[in-house]
Design a protein that fits this description.
Shape: elongated
Strand order of the largest sheet: 1-2-3-4
Oligomer: single chain
Largest sheet: 4 strands, mixed
Length: 110
């Protein structure tokens, strides 16, 4: 389990780094096949209050899972990305279960 955090054009505070590490570790406990998680923070150059962008990439066997969120704080954006990743993991798990069930059903007829 490896977590890569990359702030672009600013220095991340230790509190932000600790927060991200704590929250992303929960993804690894939720999906044990995850290899690593890449988190990129950047500030959008707009006049809006919601200019903090978090992009997350969960490296897993097969296709990686990607999420991005733009909020007023990096912590809020991180939480939104984690929720998006969790939904993608649930979808992936349900597809794997249905595929396994279909394969098990086919082996009975052969």
């Amino acid at each position: 389990m490896k977590i890569n955090i990359q702030p672009k054009d600013f220095t991340a505070t230790p509190q932000l780094l600790d927060f991200v590490i704590e929250k992303t570790r929960k993804i690894f406990s939720f999906y044990d096949q995850a290899i690593s998680c890449d988190v990129v923070f950047k500030t959008d150059k707009s006049d809006k209050d919601t200019n903090k962008v978090c992009t997350m990439r969960l490296v897993i066997p097969g296709n990686d899972l990607l999420a991005s969120a733009q909020c007023s704080s990096f912590e809020e954006a991180t939480m939104q990305c984690i929720e998006i990743i969790k939904r993608q993991i649930n979808t992936k798990k349900s597809k794997q279960k249905s595929k396994t069930a279909v394969q098990a059903g086919r082996s009975d007829f052969q």
